Amino acid sequence: MDPSDLVLVCILKDKRDLEIARVLGWYRIPLKSAPKTVAVDYLAFYQAAKFGAEKWSINYVALVRGHELTTRAELLRTQPDHPRAQEPYYKIQIGPLERLPRPVPSRAWRRITFLYTTGERLLAATELNDLIVQSEERERLWKALHERGLAAEKQYEQRGAGELDLALLCALGTLGISLGDLPASEMRERPAGVYLTFPEATVNANLPKVVQTIEQAVQRLGGPERGEPRGMDRPDLSISP
Questions:
Q1: Strand, coil or helix: 61
Q2: Among residues 143, 114, 103, which one has the least CA distance to residue 30?
């Protein structure tokens, strides 16, 4: 794998999907929920809850050899009566599975769909957030929070709030953080959690103050969550296989 290779991180929901990839050399993606492009150099496989010791982590990659559009019925001929049998699917043809030098775990439960990364990031990553490419301001804030001992999640999907730029899992709930060209807001509550918004210009001009505001919000929410991440009993993916 070259540092500049484009890698698509996708999910393996169960051991059958792993065996299909390993033995038959392909992976399927429903067209209706496919990412913008499947013309990538490698697939990296995030393994879901059914994989025991390898769950919630990326352990394998495979070289992409090509792709074609077909139907689910053509791919899985033992399931001709499946409700999505005639729906279009991408068949991604892959080479042999290669085990990464070290797994890339997800530190907290998150709803994985697809994400793009690079060969350089994948081989250097120690956890899933290291793979996610964000704007310079979001990267600066994420690194500053980590330096303060606050393990923020990137591009975290929160039920009822959509995707958050950053999120901190706290004892009393999730603190969502959004960056954008909006006036700075006080901490506000919604049914799905608690949120802060900062203009990107504020992050650039006064990063220590932004971090301090976030630290105070975390303390109001009981401090960082400890122990087993919340939500691990829920499904790992929202799309249908």
A1: strand
A2: 114
Domain boundary among the residues 101, 131, 161 is at 131
The answer as to whether 232 is a domain residue is no
Q: Which residues have CB under 8 Å from 123's CB, separation 6+?
A: 1, 3, 100, 101
Global pTM exceeds 0.85: no
Residue 155 lies in a domain: yes
* Domain enclosing residue 166, as ranges: 136-220
Contact between 87 and 31 under an 8 Å Cβ cutoff? The reply is yes
**151 and 192 share a domain?**
yes
Q: In this structure, are 127 and 159 located in the same domain?
A: no
Say if residue 114 is in the same domain as residue 165.
no
Cα–Cα distance list, 98 to 20, 41, 54, 126, 141 (Å): 15, 14, 15, 18, 34
Instruction: For residue 176, give the H/E element and its range.
Output: strand 173-179
110/20 Cα distance (integer angstroms): 25
Per residue in 98-140, pLDDT tens?
A: 999 999 998 766 566 788 899 998 999 988 888 877 777 888 8
- Compute the Cα dihedral for 93, 98, 99, 100 and give only its sign: negative
State the amino acid at position 29 in one-letter form. I
Strands 153-158 and 26-30: unpaired
